[in-house]
Amino acid sequence: MKSIAAKCATALAVLSLSALPVLAQDATAAPETPAVSPEVAYIFNTLLFLIGGFLVMWMAAGFAMLEAGLVRSKNVSMQCLKNITLYSIAGIMFWVTGYNLMYTGVDGGFIGSLGPYSFDPVGGDALDTGYSTASDWFFQMVFVAATASIVSGTVAERVKLWPFLIFTAILTGFLYPISGSWQWGAGWLSEMGFSDFAGSTIVHSVGGWAALSGAIILGARKGKYGADGTVHPFPGSSMPLATLGTFILWLGWFGFNGASQLAMGSISDVTDVSRIFANTNMAAAAGVVVAVIMTQLLYKKVDVTMALNGALAGLVSITAEPLAPSMWATLFIGGVGGAIVVLAVPVLDKFKIDDVVGAIPVHLLAGIWGTLIVPLTNGDASYGTQITGIAAYGAFTFVASGIVWYVLKVTIGIRVSDEEEALGLDKVEIGVEAYPEFGTGSQRL
Amino acid sequence: MKSIAAKCATALAVLSLSALPVLAQDATAAPETPAVSPEVAYIFNTLLFLIGGFLVMWMAAGFAMLEAGLVRSKNVSMQCLKNITLYSIAGIMFWVTGYNLMYTGVDGGFIGSLGPYSFDPVGGDALDTGYSTASDWFFQMVFVAATASIVSGTVAERVKLWPFLIFTAILTGFLYPISGSWQWGAGWLSEMGFSDFAGSTIVHSVGGWAALSGAIILGARKGKYGADGTVHPFPGSSMPLATLGTFILWLGWFGFNGASQLAMGSISDVTDVSRIFANTNMAAAAGVVVAVIMTQLLYKKVDVTMALNGALAGLVSITAEPLAPSMWATLFIGGVGGAIVVLAVPVLDKFKIDDVVGAIPVHLLAGIWGTLIVPLTNGDASYGTQITGIAAYGAFTFVASGIVWYVLKVTIGIRVSDEEEALGLDKVEIGVEAYPEFGTGSQRL
Amino acid sequence: MKSIAAKCATALAVLSLSALPVLAQDATAAPETPAVSPEVAYIFNTLLFLIGGFLVMWMAAGFAMLEAGLVRSKNVSMQCLKNITLYSIAGIMFWVTGYNLMYTGVDGGFIGSLGPYSFDPVGGDALDTGYSTASDWFFQMVFVAATASIVSGTVAERVKLWPFLIFTAILTGFLYPISGSWQWGAGWLSEMGFSDFAGSTIVHSVGGWAALSGAIILGARKGKYGADGTVHPFPGSSMPLATLGTFILWLGWFGFNGASQLAMGSISDVTDVSRIFANTNMAAAAGVVVAVIMTQLLYKKVDVTMALNGALAGLVSITAEPLAPSMWATLFIGGVGGAIVVLAVPVLDKFKIDDVVGAIPVHLLAGIWGTLIVPLTNGDASYGTQITGIAAYGAFTFVASGIVWYVLKVTIGIRVSDEEEALGLDKVEIGVEAYPEFGTGSQRL
């Protein structure tokens, strides 16, 4: 979504529209009616946040299904639990500290203010905000949850539940809001001219950096990488669930990118939302098609998980600038995203970075790509500033996340024992098997 | 949703807004334009019903997945069939008798009128209703389906298909509409000042009471309770499906509570809808967090099904008053809902009440809690009246449902034979296994 | 959706509404304000396309889950891959050639013009179209994807991946748009008075005809039909996924039919959308109830897959005219759709036409039924013209699809070898099993 500065401009535009007829009424007996009254614009804007918000909330289910499908059956209950709990914690933390750290009183700086957020009162009538503040909070809150979901996929199958939840609370209550304030809170990067429409960097790369630091500090799953450099595939337990998760994420992305226009109370705003819907869809489509063709050419078979991650990489790639690109540019941007995933997965394995669901290629690398390429289609952005922003988010999140993961590691520990890992997290920490009757799988070890 | 009385007030408010400028035009040559014309408000209100309606319709899929995940694999096809069929029957019955019994001509009394419902004609232009009557019907219809879905989970794995469907038809065509008329049809409880915004009692407790009477009359599944008081867990067949179902219900609840505002044609209405979205989300989040912490403390492991039911209990708890509570109050209300589930499940087992999916703690007990606590945040409600309402709905639904279940039992029978129960309902009544290739489960008995 | 001609009428109506007050202002000092300004109507219309569009996009997930649930586990990954890839290809092809072939310059003829589509520019303000062109493109694009999804279910479990994708590209880039232009592009059938509101024929029958020609040319799965005429059932691998898919499709259909009203910027339009929501839901409900009762009477057991297909057949049946029917007529139309499915499935088997998911009864036969019965409730339609339209779409699509399938067959081949079919497509063409840990199924052959 755009920065608060841009928001204010929108709100002012709405107000000036509404002010005009009043002035006109002073001057003439035949006043011009505003095409869209400020009240109607307020309702439309709020509705956009609500629809966008529930679509992005639904992405929490998408991450849950994607990850449940891509882990082995002995860890599926745990992955389900982590996803519903991280979504809950993200919401609470974003209310307790997150929103105000991100959006209140940043003023070109590095951080907002501390304290829980207050909504409009019942029957609120503060027309001058241009939308309901609760709808805005709801929409921003589901974004932070997406960031946390990215992490859970990468560190799956070996991280302990409680340290993971503590990390989630810190990420969603502090790390994401602080770095988010730099751009969307009208902080220093926003003043410098950094451009990240709906969060290729601010949401996806941040999630990816947090995941990467976790994967490194946590180490790979036992048996994933042989001493001789061989990589052992650990096939996911359910491709249809992974597919379902991808479709859910794709659907949710219309809210993620579309509602980041932040307004639909004018015909030009709603027209832009429409362009964003079309571009978002087509970037994903290009990611799929490129991943399918590339895996066919490289491996003589088409890997369904690559097709799914190709869709997601296309979506992440277009998220930094889903409005400006022509359709040709959109297909290029999304298609490169798909290619990045196909090429990056084996590279990560070479470095023995064990990313269970492929979240680092999808969210971190495609997020960097999408942010970097913004100046191609958006004349207001510059490559230098984009690189500055990408580097700033990367350095802060990687270091800060790394410190948190490290402190958790040396205090309460972040990893289950080898024996527990072999048994599966469902048996060890949950006590409820995901599929108790489907017998020959990893959960029978 | 609010009662018809409240609805009328809203409609009048809209009309008076629209009337004002006309009056103004009589008095002056520079008329004030209404901020939101009655036509625009009509469109917004109708759109709220349509969006809310499709979100609540989607909850039917949520119940289906939740229940499919929580029964054993030998009964999964049956649970799928029951859910899609009960949704269908609920719609037809609510058209044949339900809507008019609930909403037409109640006039402070105990019941509406008999007969099928008529929609607006094609190209309808009855502006004075404030919204399309078909959109209102659609929205109310999906609510009654939710009530029926609650029952199907509790009585799963041993109730026969056809008696269950007959019960569904009676519940959705008569029992729910009659008791619903007392409040939402502007009946006696509404006049007394009972407060149940979106149906903690009217929808959820009613479903829970019907489920409870069914569970008692039907008896527990064979082998669930040992003669010595031991309780044998029958683990659900798929945790990811149960998780998916919970996320679907959570998503649908934005429509359930949000659209129960019944209007978004003014900035104060849409602001209230936004508050409701935020509160609904956070009550669920609190339910999850409390359930996770409590199961960790009580059992040293975190039960994923408790986390899921904690979310649902939080949602049910906030449904009676999702607008007025501050965020602190919301977290308290939802969190207590989560605690209720964790504490009540073993109590039900002590009484040998076999509730397959935990619907009674979630919908009945959290529904009572949510209704009871309304006066804490809503000054217009009183504890006495809330208790009266809770008791009235409980007595009527428990007794009336019990009579229906009992008559079905002594006539056509409601329970499959022991042998059939062991085989599983899929083999006995459906003939289509849910997972014919996943071999070692209960369906191989 | 209605034809472009009807669209233009709507746009003109909106414009005339907006023009009126201007005229009035010339005549009097107390101008009448338009109830809904053209700008507000534009926003509402665009929003309808966006909401309808994301709901129909979600149907792609519905088809994926339905088909993943109804094929054997050894082909599930392939079915997932095909569905996400066909959705991607459909979008790209509909942009490259489809939209303009279907909607631009048809002028009562048989085909539009060639070339990629251009959207509104950023910040578009072309009020006279009455809605954002990008939103319209998005909405039309998801329809073509639905057509392609229909085919993939029928030819599952034996068609090769790449020929299927090539067929998809031709169907979505050429065949569907050309025939679609005859009606929705204001072509010859539209001028003749053919009536197909949301595409019982134009979308569903067309998909069904393409599927039928594919099924015939491809032949049945090995072992499906014995030499002695026996039919061997190949049970689907997951009933809950098939149920989920059906619920997703049902939900998406509110967008499919509802947004085909093409406008909600007036109270009569939004009221019509509401009627369509109610009718769409109830036709599906009737389809379910009839299928459940009929399978009980015919087979003494209730087949859950018939109930699911009954819902879909009810939905397809009402799609040609979801607005005009009274509720009685709606239940009749949807109920007959359910009956068609129950009766047609064994007939197809008699002809040894192997339709894996039952798409031909659901989409082709119920599509014909729904189109044929339009004159019962819509006085503007005639049985003669309806039959002409049905025949024209059938002849063109069956022949053209057949040629494409045939050319693919004699060139690159469309069917895997017998050995590969026995192994399953997941092993042969994907290399990723759908359920690697659930051991005793078809994938262990």
From TrEMBL, chains A, B, C:
Q: Which GO terms describe its cellular component?
A: membrane
Q: How the protein sits in the membrane?
A: Multi-pass membrane protein
Name the domain of life: Bacteria
Per UniProt, residues of the Ammonium transporter AmtB-like domain are 49-435
Q: Which range is the signal sequence, renumbered to this chain?
A: 1-24
Q: Where in the cell is it found?
A: Membrane
Q: Which biological process, per GO, is one annotated for this protein?
A: ammonium homeostasis
- Which UniProt key words apply to this protein? Ammonia transport, Membrane, Signal, Transmembrane, Transmembrane helix, Transport
Q: Name the Gene Ontology molecular function terms of this record.
A: ammonium channel activity
Spell out where the chain crosses the membrane: 40-63, 84-103, 137-156, 161-178, 239-256, 276-295, 326-348, 360-378, 390-408
Q: Which family does the similarity line name?
A: Belongs to the ammonia transporter channel (TC 1.A.11.2) family.
| Name recorded for this polypeptide | Ammonia transporter
Query: Which organism is the protein's source?
Result: Roseibium album
